[in-house]
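question for whoever is on the cluster today: can someone run the full assembly for these? three chains, 948 residues total. i dont have access anymore since they changed the login thing
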Amino acid sequence: MKQFISIKDVTDVDALVEEAFSVRLNPYLNKHLGNNKTLGLIFLNPSLRTRLSTQKAAINLGMNVMVMNLDKEGWALELEDGSVMNGSGVEHIKDASAVMGQYCDIIGIRCFPLLKDRKQDYSEQLLTQLIRYCKVPVISLESATLHPLQSFADLIMIKDKWKEIRKPKVVLSWAPHIKALPQAVPNSFAQWMCRSDVDFVITHPPELELAEQFTTGARICYDQNEAVADADFVYVKNWSAYQDYGKIIHPDKDWFLTPERLKISNQAKIMHCLPVRRNLELSDALIDGPDSLILQQADNRLWAAQTVLKKILENI
Amino acid sequence: MKQFISIKDVTDVDALVEEAFSVRLNPYLNKHLGNNKTLGLIFLNPSLRTRLSTQKAAINLGMNVMVMNLDKEGWALELEDGSVMNGSGVEHIKDASAVMGQYCDIIGIRCFPLLKDRKQDYSEQLLTQLIRYCKVPVISLESATLHPLQSFADLIMIKDKWKEIRKPKVVLSWAPHIKALPQAVPNSFAQWMCRSDVDFVITHPPELELAEQFTTGARICYDQNEAVADADFVYVKNWSAYQDYGKIIHPDKDWFLTPERLKISNQAKIMHCLPVRRNLELSDALIDGPDSLILQQADNRLWAAQTVLKKILENI
Amino acid sequence: MKQFISIKDVTDVDALVEEAFSVRLNPYLNKHLGNNKTLGLIFLNPSLRTRLSTQKAAINLGMNVMVMNLDKEGWALELEDGSVMNGSGVEHIKDASAVMGQYCDIIGIRCFPLLKDRKQDYSEQLLTQLIRYCKVPVISLESATLHPLQSFADLIMIKDKWKEIRKPKVVLSWAPHIKALPQAVPNSFAQWMCRSDVDFVITHPPELELAEQFTTGARICYDQNEAVADADFVYVKNWSAYQDYGKIIHPDKDWFLTPERLKISNQAKIMHCLPVRRNLELSDALIDGPDSLILQQADNRLWAAQTVLKKILENI
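^ ran it for u. tokens below:
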């Protein structure tokens, strides 16, 4: 594997999941792989699961890890090419990237969208420039539009739980929130589900259509009840509008799921990427209930990260 | 040892001190113990000694360490059970705890009190929830009400210096300050001294009575001169009021200790947990004088932490 | 080597550069040297290159590294001796230093000037007290007046590129900026060039004379064209005024270098320590052009740091 920015960097999705299972079974087997190899973990935004699981994954592989909150510990970044840097940017992303690439064998970066300018966010300007200038393999720790380590962990979770021959019905169900959240998790989940052997449905209010480039192949349904009927997995997640970019939508009908409302499902397993605002996005009863996979999902973040790092290390 | 939250987690205090002496004598002897074990150090407040000494202790035992300033690098925490999270809290402590427990073998946490609501602080809500949900051993790096790693280091210090057969007279002496400081260090020191073979006296202005649950067994004395007379060790420390909770007290008489005022002691050794506001809490002359144990105390923080980690690792 | 605060800590500059070349050739040869040795990296200011390169250098030598943003993660420092600490300072530098020295075998520190009070900055009060009280070898990661790791890397760069018998002409050329920058990089570069076998010229507007203690031996020239004529290396760098201390100078004539204006040089190699404000300090064309050494300079930061750490470890 040369980088891990989206599912497009994965040749064989099923084989990658299988590899994750064997990594999980024997986490310290490949400790030699990371010998004298350094992972730089660069954060421009908060992170709990990604920060700790990726660090731990690298340690399990014998790598050195350098963690840096680039926004707080480094210099303010300039992104525009050719600009006269007489504003707030102190260092150009191309210079910071080239330098980090000299000290690191692999770079992971978290760079959220600003949710102001869709074209800007969806151009993945920062990530793209990092890849171009650092010249080492880059792993997305959640970019403006995608969160592939999360989606990979989610797929591991589904494959781990689903043992029937028929395809599972997997529903991505929009949930309410009070802040404008990125579309990265739903975009990425859609992208991975559309490449997997599942019956995939996305349900949300009409104003919350996701970018088509990520949802092609998915069934879109504006009626949550219809969507969750007979569902085997329900992935609950809020996102802000893609059309009216970054807008917080308060839909007419209630999109908040409860055990009561999931009775029409096939005793669906409940998924969420965390952090979750309890009783706003999802009820305590569902999060803590017997069908919740939420904590196991977080655990799988470790195996997703370790599998990706292993594949990249094998290719360096 | 299953956790290290207070002295109640210690079965044999004397044996633990003895173990600390042998750890100090041979710091790298147990480097195998931490193999493939990860310590998560979670800070919600500033820390110098605790941050560095616990990290170093873990390294000496061959552990991996992941340090995280949860308040700045992660998500704002919600503590209330069952609340609708439509306020500032982004992630519930129970979810953050469960997740961190999946990536770490031991978790250390620093969570100071807010000093606004005594009942809230003394309930140790955050620490208690972490312990309940993370499911791995937890070490307090100073909680709302206690700082056991400090007190253990303090006891190591006293045992190291005191070679006479009679019990030493150990005095905890309140000192002035301009900020409202927690009661964690004096509470904890009292708790440890009351379990140790010393003659223990606490001296402070009447308004500064500590919580009885921690001082049972101690002699309380409102006259500083009487208290320090014949003292062998004087532990100087400020705290804000427990009764009129969090209030900064400016007592009538002067509680600031100087070499002059300690002439009535038995050439008492001077202790302080640091950081110290020089010439406000304690005079330069005492901090830097020949009877000061203050820097050695800080050094013992390392051996206290390493001994605690060792005992927990042996029990995992 | 006992410490690395300025070139005065180096006995044989040429030998040190030679050692850097062999370290670069065989980076993992001395991994045993750092066994059970801990480097504390203490930052009071932002850092990208220094933070990552010094960390990586220590890892290459088998050391443990503890990184701490002392200003944000620790306690506010008091610097004045004998003061009554009833202000904003929570911990005296002498106490913090003594404590850090107990947990670390080597301490690196970054402490920028405030650019308000020249006497204060040039006294290097914080660095000096750290050295005095921590009692372990100290490495400057850029202090108020000097940045020796940068200058050492710069010299490695020049020696690496210059193969002719005649001395190269090396020009330090002031460049415009919108913020008040320290004089540490130019002071330090001057100090190293004056000890090296080069023809060294500093060019700047008259108001921007550097402190004589660092420039003795250098030729000062207020005419940039005259200075860069026949130059083999041009080191571009902004600094604020030393005389009218900390003032941002907007000189009459244009000091911004372009390929056009460097035609009179001997196809000079372009150097800059980074971060660089593109098209304000230096044009894109020069930074990204075929004669730019800027990224290689940053790479040499790693070898400079590793060589210094190696020399100190050999002496512990």
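summary bc i know u wont read the tokens: Chain A touches chain B through 30 residues (CB under 8 Å). The first strand of chain A starts at residue 38 and ends at 43.
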